[in-house]
Amino acid sequence: MADIETDEDIKKLVDAFYVQVREDDLLNPIFADVAKVDWVQHLPKMYAFWNGMILGKPGYTGRPFPVHAVLPVGLEHFERWLAFFKLMVDANFAGGGADRAKNAAASIAHTFAMRMGLINPVAGQML
Question: Which fold does the domain 7-115 belong to in CATH?
Answer without folding.
Answer: Globin-like (1.10.490)
